Amino acid sequence: MVVEDDQAIRAGLCDVLRFGGYIPLSCARGDIAVKEILESAPDLVLLDVMLPGLDGFQVLRQLRAVHPTLPVVMVTARGDERDRVDGLEHGADDYVVKPFSAREVLARVGAVLRRSAERPVSIRTLTRGESVVDFARCEARSAQGVASLSARELEVLRVLASASDRVISREELLRVVWAVDPRGADTRAVDMQIVRLRETLASVGLESLIETVRGKGYRLASDAEVQA
Asked: What domains can you pick out in the chain, each with its CATH number?
């Protein structure tokens, strides 16, 4: 799905995708795009930042609340680093900056689709004792209360839950959740995210749901129940 308000650029992107063997759909408005994306369930979204109705970041937030694993590549005419960082922090898998070449678009789309094939998508709930992580509602709850979870926090938990029989390294989390090449990357971002996630989970009695394996990474507590 190509979401771009400029008709010429939208048509050009669709032509590039057809040339690459894809079947593109398109939309010119952010508010309409959310509905069409949810109805058509595309494999990937090319999402412009500057859109009428809703801007690209607003569209991305709404999509991530419903489909945390849907591959999204942001498209922007602005080369400002802040825009690129904002997109990635809101859950974008990658970005391209206008003007771009057909070769670059196809390379980035292909790379994101290859990464997304590794993503677990079937986890519904995590349960430990009386506490539950509900992926559909984007929340953790227990008798102690309810805590909202961000798209990235849910994605971390989803990866751990889908591989509960092994330790997940920081490098793997960077690659799958952050869509970042772990070679030479700073893995402190993962550790800081885990710290914040544990603080959120602690409010509903799930402070020990994620275990640290020194020198290796993280895993889900062995007594956690995963419902797919």
From this structure: 2-116 (3.40.50.2300), 125-227 (1.10.10.10)
What ranges make up the beta strands (E) of 22-178? 26-27, 45-48, 72-76, 94-97, 125-128, 131-134, 139-142, 145-148
User: What's the CA gap between 67 and 48, in Å, rounded?
Assistant: 18
Helices in 99-176 by DSSP H: which ranges?
102-116, 151-162, 170-176
Please report, as a single letter, which amino acid is at residue 202.
Answer: A
Whole-number Å distance between alpha carbons of 202 and 108: 38
In the chain (228 residues long), the average pLDDT of successive 10-residue segments reads: 95 93 93 90 91 93 82 80 68 85 90 68 83 92 93 88 81 78 73 93 93 92 87
| Measured CA angle at 84 (ends 83, 85), to 5 deg | 90
What pLDDT was estimated at residue 83?
64
Q: Which helix (H) or strand (E) covers residue 224, if one does?
A: none
Q: What is the pLDDT of residues 85-103, one digit of tens each?
A: 676 777 788 888 888 899 9
pTM: 0.53
Question: Which tokens in the block code for residue 147?
Answer: 């805590």
Q: What is the number of other CB atoms lying within 10 angstroms of the CB of residue 161?
A: 23
Question: Which residues contact residue 169 at a Cβ distance below 8 angstroms, ignoring those fewer than 6 apart?
Answer: 216, 217
Cα–Cα distance for residue pair 205/198, rounded to 1 Å:
10
Residue at 183: amino acid letter: R
DSSP state of 122: -
